[in-house]
Write a structure and sequence with these properties.
5 strands, 2 domains, alpha/beta, 110 residues, five-stranded mixed β-sheet
């Protein structure tokens, strides 16, 4: 089994429910589909799979709590997509458009 996994949420189109997918980080092959977002659910699943050593996740604090509760020695990695998106948003939002455009090599239309 894999030592690395990823916790992702899936929202099904036209449905009112969300599921959480746990997959192998190396191959993206699904390992489990969790029914909810509660930390207890993630904790229970990880306790049944003690071989997992590294988990990639987004910034949801419930994931962090569930992983820590199951095994504090599991390394938690913030996933690349959320890191880049949050870094970009925190850099762009405080600055007005007139300041951003020259940095991007663009000019403001009059």
């Amino acid at each position: 089994m894999s030592l690395f996994c990823r916790v992702r949420w899936l929202r099904f189109p036209k449905r009112a429910y969300v599921r959480h997918l746990i997959c192998k980080l190396e191959t993206h092959a699904p390992l489990a589909l969790l029914p909810d977002r509660f930390p207890e659910t993630i904790t229970a699943w990880l306790q049944q799979h003690p071989f997992i050593k590294i988990v990639s996740r987004d910034g949801f604090t419930g994931f962090k709590q569930g992983i820590t509760d199951s095994n504090p020695s599991i390394k938690q990695v913030y996933d690349r997509w959320h890191f880049i998106t949050n870094a970009k948003n925190s850099w762009i939002k405080p600055y007005p458009l007139s300041f951003q455009l020259p940095l991007l090599g663009l000019q403001e239309k009059e």
